[in-house]
Design the sequence.
């Protein structure tokens, strides 16, 4: 019920893609940059959006990315502003201010998680992605769109955040086994979807 008034994430995602590229940054972009403490360019924002949209046939992955990028989550810091007397601290470390950046990245309880994901990406794609939040949370990785393993890389990054969101208000840190299992399921779905599309194309070609 709390999230209902924030709008449906999928329609937010589509609006973001359909709107003509604005010359001004959206408020979610400015809020991210405020938390990061540095600026990102509009080109970086739109490249990350379109790379992520293009990487997968699965709407749920795209939606998961949008929920992060557009700051859909009611993190403790935000809840505390809405409801006076509510703790704005992180429920994992119970010390840091529970901002979007903290809940998905900065929390020291997540340090090992992201390092494991960095290793997983290195082992699967050969790419060493520096541990920076705009790379892992927002998919702004230089040269990503021309990388041969862009799809699997984006799938890993997206699943990493889906698992954190699924452990909302829990101190459980997802394991790499769970993460790889989920990425495998998505990869076989993608393969199946491509096969079906390929067959449809072949079929259409015959006629
Ligand atoms: Zn924390």
Sequence:
């Amino acid at each position: 019920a709390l999230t209902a008034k924030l709008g449906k994430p999928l329609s937010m995602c589509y609006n973001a893609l359909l709107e003509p590229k604005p010359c001004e940054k959206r408020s979610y972009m400015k809020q991210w940059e405020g938390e990061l403490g540095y600026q990102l360019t509009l080109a970086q924002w739109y490249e990350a959006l379109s790379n992520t949209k293009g990487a997968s046939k699965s709407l749920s992955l795209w939606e998961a990315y949008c929920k992060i990028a557009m700051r859909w989550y009611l993190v403790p810091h935000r809840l505390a502003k809405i409801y006076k007397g509510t703790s704005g601290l992180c429920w994992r470390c119970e010390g840091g201010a529970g901002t979007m950046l903290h809940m998905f990245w900065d929390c020291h309880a997540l340090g090992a998680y992201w390092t494991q994901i960095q290793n997983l990406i290195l082992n699967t794609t050969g790419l060493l992605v520096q541990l920076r939040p705009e790379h892992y949370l927002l998919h702004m990785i230089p040269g990503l769109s021309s990388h041969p393993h862009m799809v699997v890389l984006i799938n890993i990054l997206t699943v990493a955040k889906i698992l954190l969101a699924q452990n909302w208000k829990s101190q459980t840190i997802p394991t790499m086994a769970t993460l790889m299992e989920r990425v495998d399921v998505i990869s076989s779905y993608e393969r199946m979807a491509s096969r079906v599309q390929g067959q449809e194309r072949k079929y259409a070609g015959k006629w």
User: Anything to note?
Assistant: The mean pLDDT is 88. Residues 4-206 form one domain.
